[in-house]
Amino acid sequence: MFRSPRGIANWLDPASTLGIMAVAVALLMIGGHFDLSAGVMTGTTALTVGIVAGEFEQSIWLGIAIALAVALAVGFLNGWLVTRTGLPSFIITLGTFLMLQGINLGLTKFFTGTVTAGGIARAPGYDLAEAVFASRITLGAAQIRIAVLWWVLATVLASYVLLRTRFGNWIFATGGDDVAARNVGVPAQRTTIVLFLTTATAAWFVGTTLAVRLTNVQANTGIGQELIYIVAAVIGGCLLTGGFGSAVGASLGALIFGMTQLGIVYLNWNADWFYFFLGAMLLLAVLANRLVRRYAEAARR
Amino acid sequence: MTDPGMRGAVTRGGGAVPLLELRGVGKSFGPVIALDDISTSVRAGEVTCVLGDNGAGKSTLIKVLSGVHRPDRGELLLDGQPVTFGAPRDALDAGIATVYQDLAMIPLMAIWRNFFLGSEPTTGWGPFRRFDRAAAKETTRRELAAMGIDIRDPDQPVGTLSGGERQSVAIARAVHLGARVLILDEPTSALGVRQAGVVLRYIARARDRGLGVVFITHNPHHAHPVGDRFLLLNRGRSLGHYAKDDVTREGLTRLMAGGAELDQLAHELERPEPG
Fold first, then answer.
1. Which residues from B are below 8 Å from A180, CB to CB?
2. Which is more confidently placed, B273 or B77?
3. Domains plus CATH for chain B?
């Protein structure tokens, strides 16, 4: 079952939305920062789509556009505060994370009177949005969600930027040593802000996908996911201290996550133990990274 | 302009107009005078050494030269014309490159990525403009070879290089990126004798390629063999400005330690007379 085309489509599904986020979060981590607000931001954007399209019965595309503006504003605020104050991004995004969590619940209740924003499927423009964000592609015997395609595209694009462009060089440099980078003329602050805008854009994309798929969004959507993104990036080889990692690695981390999550179900194991396995994998990955890097550096001496 | 250093320059350097000249430069931070009335010049193909103990004002002087600080008094002349640098980028664009002591390189990045950091060559156009990796690797290998630096593999991370090799790569980078004036902040201070010798050789090579070098150090033994003129600093003031012919290595050491102070110290450290 697990290796059947349908099985593969099943475990690719959770891996895909996670993977899109993990790739963006990996770029930010290579650039030396964390974004703890990334998870709840998928909820904020999904709720924005839900409230504009469901509650106010506007075109879903207007909702999607407003959600993008909201995400970019939060991403810019994160990046601006981090570069302006020099405080750890961990603390600053923890602040925006908690604020967004409150806003999500407060505004959803204010507009809908409940803790969900629904009725998205009735909004004008839904059919096209569904085709873009939530359709399925038939591949042989399996139907694969289109998010898998977007995930592959995001991985390819991020790898290209990271390894083949000037901006990619600046990401590594800013995360490796931002003072040294600035001394040789790298716009480190701009790089950091663009990276926060990237995670915000990814959160908008995933949030929109959730809203279009589920057509009914809970106010607590996305909470707790921010750590899963970081786990996927670290399993994929990103250093917590910045300056090292890859987009492909983060995608593999997301893939391993999806396989474990559904593998436990297919094995008929108790799914309660999932987080135990996730934690053990994270520890193993960190230890393996350390060994491999030491070996690689020693061998080159 | 009556001090001996200036006269020495005309006979040795050839070029009448210095690349970079300081005239009576001063800088204060609140009530603290970090630099006061400093004058010196940097000429093409010459090494100007700035010597001083900790807190002498060497780092403030670097920051004035590299555009981090603006001087409060005096003026900075580039090719004989007064200039003001608003930001490090302005100094870089004017061909003044600074190699900082520890902050020259990103250890986890490959040598060729470091070499072009901030000045990456690109190929293609519009959204397809990308980092020209092949050219970057090839140029890195060639430029390092031209400076006599033997690097096995430009793909290896800079963190695997020794301290002297790192400084040397940083110097080669500045030379390649078109620096006319190279400011070196204590490039030899953290190094052993052999490694320091390697770096001094690259300083001489950069000089021979026609760059003006500002070599900042607290070690007269490193400064004297390679320097053409020497500016001694103490507590932000100039202790003197000498051409190479006017001062010996021992003279420099004595001047740096404040002459009489060194005699006093030697006296204090003498063993007490027995009995």
1. 100, 103-106
2. B77
3. 4-104+180-188+207-269 (3.40.50.300)
Which of B92, B109, B112 is the mutation pick for testing A, counting most A CBs within 10 A?
Answer: B109
Which of A196, A202, A226, A187 is closest to A77 using CA atoms?
A: A196
Domains of chain A by residue range: 5-300
Task: Tell me the C-alpha distance between B149 and B151, whole Å.
Answer: 6
Please tell me the distance in Å from A189's CA to the nearest CA on chain B.
13
Q: What is the mean pLDDT of chain A?
A: 91
ipTM tops the 0.85 cut: no
As a whole number of angstroms, the distance between CA B266 and CA B257 comes to 11
The closest of A82, A94, A85 to A37, measured between CA atoms, is A94
Tell me how many degrees the CA angle A250-A255-A257 measures, rounded to the nearest 5: 95
Interface probe, candidates A166, A179, A184, chain B, greatest B C-beta count within 10 A: A184
Long-range contacts of A142-150 (CB under 8 A, 24+ apart): A142/A5, A142/A6, A142/A8, A142/A9, A143/A9, A144/A9, A144/A12, A145/A9, A145/A12, A145/A13, A145/A16, A147/A13, A147/A16, A147/A17, A147/A20, A147/A209, A148/A12, A148/A13, A148/A15, A148/A16, A150/A16, A150/A20, A150/A205, A150/A209
Task: Dump pLDDT digits (tens) for A57-103.
Answer: 999 999 999 999 999 999 999 999 999 999 999 999 999 999 999 99
Q: Which one-letter DSSP state was computed for residue B187?
A: T
Instruction: Give the global pTM.
Output: 0.84
Task: Work out how many CB contacts closer than 8 A connect A with B.
Answer: 74
Q: Which residues contact A109 (CB under 8 A, 6 or more apart)?
A: A115, A219
Do B77 and B46 meet the contact criterion of CB atoms below 8 Å apart? no
Pick the CATH number of A5-300 from 2.60.120, 3.30.530, 3.40.50, 1.10.3470: 1.10.3470
What single-letter DSSP state applies at residue B18? -
Q: Would you call A176 and B153 a contact, using CB atoms and an 8 Å cutoff?
A: no
The parts of chain A modelled with pLDDT lower than 50 are: 299-301
In this predicted structure, what is the pLDDT of residue A300? Answer: 45
